[in-house]
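I hope you will forgive my troubling you with a question about protein structure. I set the record out below, with my sincere thanks for your time.
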Amino acid sequence: MPALLHLNPLLAFIWTTAKKYSDGFRQYIYSDTEIRVRAAEEEIKHALHFTPCELNEDRIACYVPGFLADLVNSKLKVWIENAFEAQTMKQDHEYTLEKHGIVPVDYSSTGVVENFRVMQDGRQQFLEMKHKYKLSDMTAITNYMSNVGLFMKYKDQIFGISGTLGQQAETDTLEKIYDVKTCQIPAFKRRKLFEVEGVIVSEEEEWIEEICNAVLAETNPTPYRAQRAVLVICETIQQAKDLDLALENKVPDKKLYISNNMNNTAIFKKKLEAGEVIIATNLAGRGMDLQVSDQNSPIHFDFSRKEED
């Protein structure tokens, strides 16, 4: 909607005000985020004016066209909260910087860099200000249909759906919403995955060291087995980069698979040999078809997750 470009000065004012309450001495006066949001909201509302109105040159003021008043009044607090949130969002975690702009990352599920998705409610614009990117105009969703709404339109004409149901809670939800029965279809091949007990550590350095030791233990041969290829799956792009750096002088043959925007043909064009290591995000957990050489032992997986404070 072209008219939303008139909100850019307001978003810039919200961002500078939020920064003011997060930096300097005010962050100690307003130690709680909720208190900071409330204080920033009061200051912004005091400076906000909808046109047509008289210009006030005696104090700081932000002018917004009057036809946007309803939208601003309903969304102002959300935008302010998102301005504070954008300050804590981490690059290569929730988003990444690409040539064409700031792009969100579905780090917790698929690991996909979502090139055609724009973060809503000002997050996109606040991150652009944070990294000094060209400011894009805010967008507004005017038409929306949920998955539930779509399927309900078919009424009793859907006879079956196949797919991964997830855990029991997800299965129960699907059965309740759609009034359907579900069943588990067993795999046609015997599961060969052997799961070892996980290791929990408290410090980041120890966390990286444990993963490096696990990788080296598998890539080096022992008297009872040959080398193995290793796939390390990290939660975020930054974690994968950190591990790649930590293994730089320890593993001679490793590849990084962290973005669907990269040229990843080198990873898939040949079979995975013994001793090779792939460090990836959740991109490697869905639809990644790794071909293992005939000389290779079963591939070893390391699922890495670092809890944030």
The chain has a mean pLDDT of 83. The domain at 204-303 is CATH 3.40.50.300 (Rossmann fold). The chain has three domains: 2-130, 147-178, 204-303.
